[in-house]
Design goal:
It is built from 14 helices and 17 strands. By secondary structure, the chain is of the alpha+beta class. Helix 2 runs antiparallel to helix 14, helix 3 runs parallel beside helix 10 and helix 3 packs across helix 13.
């Protein structure tokens, strides 16, 4: 995900962190009250100026979906498809953390292993030290490593319409992303004696770039293959995949709109490449909900590893919600009406915001996609707040 703070630099760190459209429609297949409430919440997101919104609530009783807005410019009579594909952005991190914890459960990896053990010499220079960063620090965002997106020399140019058009077909190797992050001194370095116990927290996509490289070193396979073999195929997620170097999203989808800083009109950013273990997965609201429910219900992790995933630290200044804590690739926050709170992550890619949540036992999940991103605009805060409200109400109503 995605820091939801405004401003160009914060938006860069977040990535890999108008008038309403046509009349909205809902398809409540169970519990009409839930369908009506979900539609109201989707409409509320659209009312903040979003161009298109899609949401779904899942439980053992079935699915309820709602949508609002249009699929693209000049498509007022073509609503957002209910089965639209979209980039889930940093919700990918929950997939990657799950992979790493599966390897821990198999005894092939330990949360206390250092980066140096698996990637000798890879994290060095300018005070960065892989000997003092544990796998747990990567997954919990407590490593102190800089976010490669924020410190890249061409970061500012990338977040302009011209920069987007120049780079939309360009991919960057994870080794080069790591190199960019290591060009700056770390924000801190965990304790040499017990690095896995670090509690200082700072969101960095670099942590998951390194985690992906470690997964590949441990398994001998690509991160993408492990995602498919361990999660996508076993769960039957037929509409979830890793795009590799392709910038395309398959149809059906909706146009991804990005308002770059200082621009009066949005840019169509549907074509976009970039990201790997930190934010590249493409999915649907249905598949994403299936994954979240399977994860929290214990279908993907052994009890010890699921418990480790839920060991959290305070995550301040990440999103505009009180009490947020970050675990291993997933976060928790208290929600009124829920004794156990909810687990969530969230993801942002160019023109797409994914907001989701799941109950602690996996009995219910809520997933949403908003096909609008407004960089440095207070309207984005309103959109994000409306999306979180949708998730909260869906999981507690």
């Amino acid at each position: 995900m995605i820091s939801r703070r405004t401003g160009l630099a914060a938006t860069a760190a977040a990535l890999l962190t108008g008038a309403s459209g046509p009349a909205s429609t809902a398809a409540p297949r169970h519990r009409p009250g839930l369908g009506s409430r979900l539609q109201d919440d989707v409409d509320a997101i659209l009312a903040t100026g979003a161009t298109g919104v899609l949401a779904e609530v899942q439980s053992a009783r079935g699915r309820t979906t709602a949508r609002a807005g249009s699929a693209g410019p000049g498509a007022r009579h073509h609503p957002v498809p209910r089965d639209a594909y979209y980039r889930i952005g940093s919700d990918t991190k929950t997939f990657t953390a799950t992979l790493a914890l599966q390897l821990v459960g198999e005894g092939r990896l330990a949360l206390t292993d250092t980066v140096e053990r698996w990637l000798p010499g890879a994290v060095r220079g300018n005070g960065n030290d892989g000997r003092r960063i544990a796998v747990a620090d990567l997954l919990r965002q407590t490593s102190g490593l800089n976010d490669y997106l924020a410190v890249s020399p061409d970061a500012a140019d990338a977040f302009t319409p011209a920069g987007y058009h120049r780079s939309r077909f360009r991919t960057t190797a994870p080794e080069d992303q790591l190199k960019a992050a290591l060009s700056r001194p770390p924000l801190w370095v965990p304790d040499a004696g017990q690095p896995a116990l670090e509690r200082r927290w700072g969101y960095s996509n670099t942590n998951y770039v390194v985690a992906g490289l470690i997964i590949e070193r441990v398994t001998g396979n690509s991160w993408a293959q492990e995602i498919h073999d361990r999660i996508i195929e076993p769960l039957g997620l037929r509409h979830t995949f890793t795009p590799g170097t392709s910038p395309y999203v398959p149809r059906p989808t909706a146009t991804a709109h990005t308002w770059f800083p200082g621009c009066a009109r949005p840019t169509d950013t549907t074509l976009a490449s970039g990201g790997g273990a930190d934010g590249s997965v493409i999915s649907t609201t249905q598949d994403h909900g299936v994954f979240l429910r399977a994860l929290m219900s214990g279908r993907l992790l052994r009890p010890a590893q699921l418990a480790a995933m839920k060991e959290t630290v305070v995550a301040e200044d990440w999103i505009a919600a009180p009490g947020v804590r970050y675990g291993l690739g997933i976060a928790w926050r208290p929600v009124a009406g829920s004794d156990g709170g909810i687990w969530f992550h969230g993801g942002t890619h160019l023109g797409i915001v994914s907001e989701s949540g799941v109950t602690p036992d996996g009995s219910r999940a809520a997933t949403s996609a908003t096909f609008t991103l407004r960089m440095g605009d207070p309207a984005q805060d309103a959109q994000d707040a409306a999306a979180r409200r949708l998730v909260d109400r869906a999981l507690t109503g």
